[in-house]
TrEMBL record:
Protein name: 2-oxoisovalerate dehydrogenase subunit alpha
Matches recorded under SUPFAM superfamilies: Thiamin diphosphate-binding fold (THDP-binding)
Family, similarity comment: Belongs to the BCKDHA family.
Keyword Transferase attributed: no
Record function comment: The branched-chain alpha-keto dehydrogenase complex catalyzes the overall conversion of alpha-keto acids to acyl-CoA and CO(2). It contains multiple copies of three enzymatic components: branched-chain alpha-keto acid decarboxylase (E1), lipoamide acyltransferase (E2) and lipoamide dehydrogenase (E3).
Gene3D superfamilies from the UniProt entry: 3.40.50.970
Length: 381
């Protein structure tokens, strides 16, 4: 174990063996209390979302989507943290948190609509069916400010830190190592620390900010950055779903109880491209990719479950469910229809706005300019 790994919370080795790191000792009672059904649910979550993710990537390659940000390799970090959140907590995703969104109730077709370019958001974040999951944010880091502002509101509204764990709320916000260089993230941490907001900053360090390696992004572990703001910070193996669940559970419980913000750096790896517009072979080596494939969170958890005696029929059932979910997504994606052109002006403001009315009228006039009268009085497009 290297010096950089001594503070890393890890429960499962890459081959699925239960071998907690020294930093994981304090979390063992929590991990040992996880039921067999919950453990199987963690695995099911990861396998199903990976199938959906692969299907969406294929759909983009076939021209059905404008863009797709794959999440392959980062399932454990997302599943563990999302399963650790309580129903009353609010989640602010970035744009790659497909597992998080699905666990909280968001229909994956909502993400497809966004990436197909036929929706501004994809789902209603105020609909209880979507589990307090805010919209994807493609502007790097801006959701971190939104999350902290929301968390400040929880404090001002006595919705956190009252001592009632069934009612108290917390916020968890997801962002990547690239976004961590944005000023928004640092400003959010200043406010979170100053106002002791119930915010959990969940950074998925997937080693690459598109083509920029983490060594260029930071000279120290990201967790040390947040600690510099006075925020309790922890590093976790992001490819270990049990470790991710445990540290997230403790961080959220602390934030909810009024102990101030927490920060988690989940060390993981983006096995695929940054987005379907990217070609990682231009800047990554195959040796590096292969080394991380050996730490893939899905086979790691499967090996752990097999070691506990999980039946082969369980894995077959999960594979069938994943295949069905992926096929369902394909069918519904191909059935999507383009919305009316003027829909682009809807929801820009919460209420009708004269600027939108002006732009809508201009667009209609512009479209009409292509219609030319014919000699016999008809209209020629």
């Amino acid at each position: 174990m290297t010096s950089s790994e001594t503070d890393l919370v890890r429960v499962l080795e890459a081959d699925g063996r239960f071998a907690p790191s020294p930093a994981a000792e304090q979390y063992l009672p929590l991990i040992e209390a996880i039921s067999d059904a919950e453990l199987e649910q963690f695995y099911r979550d990861m396998v199903v979302i990976r199938a959906i993710d692969n299907q969406a990537t294929n759909l983009q390659r076939q021209g059905q989507l404008a863009l797709w940000p794959p999440s392959r390799g980062q399932e454990a970090a997302q599943v563990g943290s999302a399963r650790a959140a309580r129903a009353q907590d609010t989640l602010f995703p970035s744009y790659r948190e497909h597992a998080v969104a699905r666990i909280r109730g968001v229909d994956p077709i909502g993400i497809i609509k966004l990436m197909r370019g036929i929706s501004h958001g994809g789902w209603d974040p105020t609909d209880p069916a979507n589990g307090n999951t805010r919209l994807y944010t493609l502007v790097l880091g801006s959701q971190v400010l939104h999350a902290t502002g929301y968390a400040m509101g929880l404090n001002f509204g006595d919705r956190s830190g009252t001592g009632d764990p069934e009612r108290d709320e917390a916020v968890i916000v997801y962002y990547g190592d690239g976004a961590s260089s944005q000023g928004d993230v640092h400003e959010a941490m200043v406010f979170a620390a100053s106002y002791q907001t119930p915010t959990v900053f969940f950074l998925q360090n997937n080693q690459w900010a598109i083509s920029v390696p983490v060594a260029t992004q930071t000279r120290v572990p990201f967790a040390q950055r947040s600690a510099g703001y006075g925020i309790d910070s922890i590093r976790v193996d992001g490819n270990d779903v049990l470790a991710s669940y445990a540290v997230s559970r403790v961080a959220l419980d602390g934030a909810r109880a009024g102990k101030g913000p927490r920060a988690i750096e989940a060390e993981t790896y983006r096995l695929g491209a940054h987005t379907t517009s990217d070609d990682p072979t231009k800047y990554r080596t195959s040796d590096e990719e292969k080394s991380w494939e050996l730490r893939d969170p899905v086979p790691r958890m499967r090996a752990f479950l097999e070691g506990r005696g999980a039946a082969g029929s369980f894995f077959a059932e999960v594979d069938a469910e994943a295949a069905e979910a992926a096929e369902d997504l394909r069918v519904r994606t191909l059935a999507l229809e383009s919305p009316p052109a003027n829909k682009i002006f809807d929801h820009v403001y919460s209420e009708q706005h004269p600027l939108m009315d002006e732009q809508r009228a201009w667009r209609e006039q512009y479209e009409a300019s292509f219609e030319q009268p014919t000699q016999n009085g008809g209209i020629r497009a």
